[in-house]
């Protein structure tokens, strides 16, 4: 492990919440020799992290004072319902620290951060990685390698201090081996509703419908069913939390899917009609996905690349352009 | 390869249609040393099969005369639209041969077979195996190993000749290494609508909905989307054929899914409600599937087993019992 200080002396990262995502981030930053410390509410988690060599504490106020003194970048790594209490403490004890988060849906977080008067130092983040497991025991080095890490910029400020936070967030994500893709909050939340939350809801419905066919149906199920319902194996409270935190965007996507399925249903009841159009459109859409995501999943370097100079004239336009392409960025 | 004749001299199998399923069946039977010959409409296919050592012909009438003379078991391996013409020839040239098929949906086949006066020697079959590829070039030894091969018995006859056909079909399926699961036509068609055709339709709708989110959505898609839409990569004409051949059962299943998704949608628009119930029910259903199908997929011997003596008193009740359990059968 390379613990040699970088030049100039790097400012630390302070991760608030040491679950799967926050904890794995701490491990990656340590592995890269970056200064990092963390806080978690649970004594058991902090003890486990400490035993693994992590600088962690259960004392939130002391942790925030330390973050403020060292100009740390704060990373919010707690579930959405725990955010208001945590942000209250941040506003009281470390209001000038740069702030980011590793929570999935970005709308609620931005709203809550804004409500606590902290938007001027906030850059949203969403590392798109995870496993079915959770908690410190599930944390691992390399969880984010080649994963997309969405970084938002809705609340971009002319203030160089905000641009500095943005740059630090991108650099932190890159340190983990993630691929940074910029997006605005609404675009991000709509996209994840379509490609993650909707598939979860649909998988639940598919599972229930098959189950009503009894043992025969379950026993005949092959790979189309197994893959199509895999995410119904996710813990229900996690599905509920991710979907309910993104209600508006999910309802929009669900309405589109309902309209498509209703139209397929009607076409199937008409002997002169059928699902040819939908089968073709769905196939085309899947091919577009494979052309983009399949290629870039194997080789992240295949993803379109947009070069960005933070704070330079037109740099936000570059970020918007990258958003429409799903491009990664190269910061210089 | 063991080409030694079994005792008594085994009657041959005659496979009509040498696509992926029919052709792979021919390969398996040859590999097991069973007498088998085949027919295909296309000269190119017959030439390719012959080059691979298969006894094949493009002459349907001659093939059927040979089948009649040798008391062959006829296997229908053509797409549903080609069935009426083929069955007309069977009725004209080999009406007393035992008859089965390897077509997916069983309702249409039974109806067409009955319309051609051939139900008295017919036992339906559905080997649940396949790949995205088709045609002779895709055929392979071992395609059906450990796969479920559904065998139907709606039109069971007291006639010992029908019982003999049923026994021959089961034995042929077992020769390929498949697991025989008995089911009646309606139960089979309802089950495959729920676990195969519905997942295909839903995957098309999911793909289209994500695609409408543009490059950003496609670029953020991870495993939940990839797995949930995998079968949208199936050739559209195959999806169309399988779904449109099972319209009634598919519409019933689709209506149930639409009701579930509509109720989830409404719950998401109510701030006091949410998708907790659906997430729990879907999770429970997936666990039941994993408990049954997951276990039996890895180790087919884990599937419940019902012993059946064809033609013995109560044997059809045993088949119905097996159907409700999704059980395999052991014929003695």
Automatic annotation (TrEMBL), chains A, B:
Q: Mind listing the UniProt keywords for this protein, alphabetically? A: Oxidoreductase
Q: What is its EC number?
A: 1.3.1.12
One MF term in GO for this entry?
Answer: NAD+ binding
Q: What class of enzyme is it?
A: oxidoreductase
Q: Name one Pfam family in it.
A: PDH_N
Q: Which InterPro entries match?
A: 6-PGluconate_DH-like_C_sf, NAD(P)-bd_dom_sf, PDH_C, PDH_N, Preph/Arog_dehydrog, Prephen_DH
Q: Which Gene3D superfamilies match?
A: 6-phosphogluconate dehydrogenase C-terminal like domain (1.10.3660.10), NAD(P)-binding Rossmann-like Domain (3.40.50.720)
Tell me if Nucleotide-binding is a UniProt keyword of this record.
no
Q: Extract one GO BP annotation from the record.
A: tyrosine biosynthetic process
Ranges for domain Prephenate/arogenate dehydrogenase: 11-308
Q: Domain of life here?
A: Bacteria
| Protein family according to the UniProt entry | Belongs to the prephenate/arogenate dehydrogenase family.
* Protein name in the entry: Prephenate dehydrogenase
Q: Which organism is it from?
A: Corynebacterium kalidii
Lineage here is: Bacteria, Bacillati, Actinomycetota, Actinomycetes, Mycobacteriales
